Amino acid sequence: MIEVKHLSKHFGTQLAVKDLSFRVDNGQICALIGTSGCGKSTTLRMLNRLIEPSAGEIFIQGKNVTAIPAEQLRRRIGYAIQGVGLFPHQTIARNIATVPRLLGWTRADTDARVNELLSLFRLDPATFAGKYPHQLSGGEQQRVGVARALAARPELLLMDEPFGALDPLTRTHLQDELLRIQKLLGITIIMVTHDLEEAIKMADIIAVMDKGEILQIDSPQALLRYPRPGFVQNLVGGQDRSLHLLATQTLADIMTPVTRPSGPAMATSTSLRDAMAGLIWQGTERLTVVDENGLVVGEVTLENLLKQGARP
Ligand SMILES: Nc1ncnc2c1ncn2[C@@H]1O[C@H](COP(=O)(O)OP(=O)(O)OP(=O)(O)O)[C@@H](O)[C@H]1O
């Protein structure tokens, strides 16, 4: 668990981050979202002490991190940034091995970890380990950047717009990959984004920041249903708010249990947004929900879907 209490940062006379307090439980993903210059990156960089706070405290698993030497702390916290920052003259394997090598892992343990991470990110070790960063696509490089951040099994992963520079398809794909890996490893993630859709898809809790302050911190659904008037409402209140709301739930959340099929089959994990698109596309008003073995477990009607996306 990571807890931040009254965290502030001055740059000269400018107060870039003002009295932030929040908490992220183990295994959760927290997204910091807000307009450019609102203090997201500064907040993230104070968590691993790349920037020293002007005031406030940070606790990781109940321990005040100011008591931990910054170097040691950074090795316990993974950090992945937009544009990756891979070392251009080192192979992919060596890039990923950076922190394990600093920590003095044995060659065998380091090699095994590199192979494990490459496989986890669906990059064939035999093909990729010996390549150099410039020989990889942007999406592949970004995966290596995240793999490197995870190499020493950190308890916390900080990500600063990790998918910012990618095309929408690659971006969606990498978001799915990261969610899969995060579930597998149970790691805690704090990510900076300026993309509401990304925050809704990835995060358990979203902190909306403006001018150095957190204006609201809530689950995606609560944020969309009950945004605070003003900045937050403007951020989430566009015409696609109903679609965002639908994206926060899956068929498993709203299905009526049945055992007989009554329409096109969709998996329990399908988001209501995708289900709605599927029904519109197929021109039908009822769908069948199936589990991972293809067994019928429920049904959902278009009427029911519409209610979920309606104004609260
Ligand atoms: N090292 C620094 N020295 C002086 N001012 C800084 C420094 N780093 C950030 N700032 C200022 O602090 C404010 C917050 O910057 P920060 O990078 O945290 O914003 P951000 O929300 O991450 O923005 P973006 O989305 O554009 O990256 C900005 O006004 C910025 O100009």
UniProtKB/TrEMBL annotation:
SMART domains in alphabetical order: AAA (SM00382)
UniProt domain ABC transporter: residue ranges: 2-236
Keywords, sorted A to Z: ATP-binding, CBS domain, Nucleotide-binding, Transport
Xref: InterPro entries: AAA+_ATPase, ABC_transporter-like_ATP-bd, ABC_transporter-like_CS, CBS_dom, CBS_dom_sf, P-loop_NTPase
GO BP: quaternary ammonium group transport
Alphabetized GO MF terms: ATP binding; ATP hydrolysis activity
Family as reported in the entry's similarity comment: Belongs to the ABC transporter superfamily.
Name of the protein in question: ABC transporter
